[in-house]
Structures are given as structure tokens and as C-alpha cells.
Amino acid sequence: MQTSRRAFLHTAAAGAVVPVIGPRVLDVLERRLEAFGGLPPAAAAADEAFWNEIRKVFPVPADYINLENGYSSPQPAATFEAFQRHQAAINGGLSFYMRRKKADDLASVKKQLADLAGCPADEIVITRNTTESLGTVIHGVDLAPGDEAVMCDQDYGSMLEQFRQQSRRRGLKCVEITIPLHPKSDEEIVDTYARVITARTKLLLVSHMVNITGQILPVRKIADMCHARGVSVIVDAAHSFAHVAFKVPDLDGDYLGASLHKWLCTPLGAGLLHVKKDKIRGVWPLFGETSVPDDDIRKLERIGTHPSWTVLAIADAIRFHTMVGAERKEARLRYLQQYWTDQVRGVPRIYLNTPEGQRACAIANVGITGMTPTALAKELFDRFKVYTVAIDTGPVHGTRVTPHLYTTTAELDAFVKALKTLAA
Ligand SMILES: Cc1ncc(COP(=O)(O)O)c(C=O)c1O
């Protein structure tokens, strides 16, 4: 208790979001990574010594190979340690913190997150997850009976469900398309969306990275096409944020949601909502807020009491992410995916549901002809202790395979061997 109180006072006096006692694991890691200098992304991708240092700060399961990092990410020790210290510090003076310090800390974390996202802090809200971020938009914009919204059968279920509810409640017409698993060009995808847009289309939902296959969609080109037709774009960046290196304005969506507990590796329950400045006025807060102007993004922040330590830990997660390097991270994650997919592409009975090259990064999906996805995932785990997740929806039938920064090529070799054994 004494330590917590001292630590809390230290935080309260600091005036900015700084880790409470000192970022110990982060400091050690930073010193270790100095040995690698400014390793460029292309060289870093296959530098096992560099990634071995990163692996040391992740909790790695002892009794199975975890290739299901698409659900959410474990926090690296560097963030987890800071998170626990924030929790202890706030707990040591809870109402004082909430009344005197929370608002400044929130503003500071928002600034850091906005810098990472490449957009102004007055266009973002820290939420609990993508479901909440995009739900705030789907339920917050005015919709009239007969208005149409376009989405894809490979979008995430929670978003599709929220649109279906708007269909029941407001008479919205949901138009669901199917996109090819192996597109020949960006235009093929853009045209698939463009074909269903009508004069009544108000909104279009697009996943930056499809969660069940890992396919990266040409969001900017889709947004350009939509804007030329007066349609607003909602970008689901749950999986792409802090996974592939991009800035939010690059995509030019009107609204964007991301889950920070996925690839930014924050504690569970941290998300981002970005709303373009000129669209803020048109979003009604779900919980009511009339004390700030209609075009002030803070009207969306009245969500009640929630764990402030999670918000603080976003700053620590950003520091870890920056230390690893956004471009190095993307290069490594794509390298790991291609390391195993290159070994199984063309092997009899094995098929991939994920496109090649820059159209995917860490996530890929694989199937074996004659085996259900459930059976494949089960065999991989029961016989080979490789954990993946079966996907059997719409046009996608296979198991999703998601390595992480802590995954080794030796683990992927074991997985490839298992896959080939099952296919033989
Ligand atoms: C594409 C996509 N969107 C949204 C979500 C929902 O994320 P959350 O549960 O963090 O709201 C997920 C979760 O996996 C996802 O993959």
C-alpha cells in the first residue's frame, strides 16, 4: 500500500502519462535492441536473433504452439508490467485519481494514439474495442427506412449483426456482397462493391484486413469510389491497425474502428474510433451528451466508469510498438506467413484461402481437401499440439493460422510437417 501510494503521488505530480516507477522491462529490451542499430525492415524480417529478443518478453505457451494470435494478443511483459503498476497506483488513490488526474491522462494518451494513427486527437475516441467503435457509428448516424448499407459476407459477425439490427429497427436495407478469395487486381474488388451501390446507398462497411482469411482490401480505392458516389465509408481496421504500417488518413474512410488489444498488444478492452472532422456532427452519442458542442468528438466519450489503467497502458504499448518498429513488425509478420505458405502451396490436397504477396500479412487460412475445418484444427492440436482456429463460413473453409512476433521458424516448420502429414 505504501509503495502504491508513493507511486501514485509520483504519477499525480508528473503531469503527463509516464510509467509509474520506471519502464523496467522496456528499458532492458531497449538496451538489448540497441545492439541491432537501425535494422531496416527488409533485413529485420529474417533476423532470428532480433526476434529472439522480442520473444523473450512475450508469454509463450509451454505445451503447445500458438498459431491463433488473431483472437487477441498477449501483452508483452513490457506492457503487462506497466499495466499492473498503473492498476496498483490508481487503486491506491482511486477517487483522487479519477477526479483530479484522469482527464489529463486521457488527453495525453489520446495525443500519443493520435500521433501513432497519424490523425488529429480531436478526431479520435478511445473505446473498448472495434465492436463498440463501429457500433457507435452504425447506431449513431441518422438512417431512414429504405436507406441502404453495403457490406461483405466476410466482414466480422458483430458488425453484420449491428447492421441487421438497424435493418429491423430503422428499415435499413443491408446489401451483402461476396469478394473473391484470390483477386486478380484491386479493380476486381472495387468493382464488386461498386456494382451494388444505388442512389439509396448511405454507408459502406469494408474490412481493411479480412479476419477469416487475412486478405488486405484496397480500402483507399474503395473509399475513392464511394466518395465519388456520395457514400460514406466505415473501415473495420480491427486487424490491420499496428499490424501493417499505415496512417488512418491514408485510407480516407469517414469512420474507422480498431481493436488495440490485437496487434498493438494492449491489455484487453482497448479500442480506437476515428471520425473525420466533418462527420462528427452527424453521429449521435449512444449514451447522451449535450454538454459539449455537436461537432466535438468528446461527445462520444461519456461511457461511464471504466478501467483507467487500461487506457494508461495504451501509452506503454505504443512505446513497445515503436521500439519494435511498425515497418519491421509488418515485414516480420508477412515473412512468417510466407515462410509456411510457400512450403505448402501446390502440395496435393492442400489449398490456401489467402492471396499471395502484399495482399496479406500475418494471417492466412489453409484447408485440406476432404477434411472439415473443424477436423483439421482438431487433428493439428490433438496430434501435433499446434493451436489454430477452424473457419467454416461463407466461401471460407479452412483453419486460420496466425503467427505472432514471438513465433519462431522452427515452430512453423513443425506446423508445416503436421500439415503435410495430414494431407498425405
Ligand atoms: C475484422 C474484425 N472486426 C471486428 C472484430 C471485433 O473485435 P473486438 O471483439 O475487439 O470488438 C474482430 C475480432 O476479431 C475482427 O476480426
Please mark out the parts with pLDDT under 50 across 5 or more consecutive residues, or reply none: 1-22
User: Which ligands occur here?
Assistant: pyridoxal-5'-phosphate
Roughly what is the average pLDDT, rounded to an integer?
94
Helix segment tally: 17
Main sheet record: 7 strands, mixed
Q: Into which percent range does the helicity of residues fall?
A: 40-55%
Percentage beta strand: 5-15%
Q: Which radius of gyration do the C-alpha atoms yield?
A: 22 Å
* Strand arrangement across the biggest beta sheet: 2-8-7-6-5-3-4
Structural class: alpha/beta
What coarse outline follows from CA principal-axis ratios?
Answer: globular
| Quaternary organisation | single chain
Terminal CA distance reads 60 Å
Structure characterization notes:
With about 425 residues, the protein is of the alpha/beta class. It is about 45% helix and about 15% strand. The strands form 3 sheets. It has a 7-stranded mixed beta sheet with strand order 2-8-7-6-5-3-4, sandwiched between helices. Strands 9-10-13-12 form a 4-stranded antiparallel beta sheet. The protein has a two-stranded parallel sheet with strand order 1-11. It is globular, with a radius of gyration of 22 Å. Mean pLDDT is about 95; it is low at about 1-20. The protein binds pyridoxal-5'-phosphate. Pyridoxal-5'-phosphate binds near residues 129, 211 and 238.
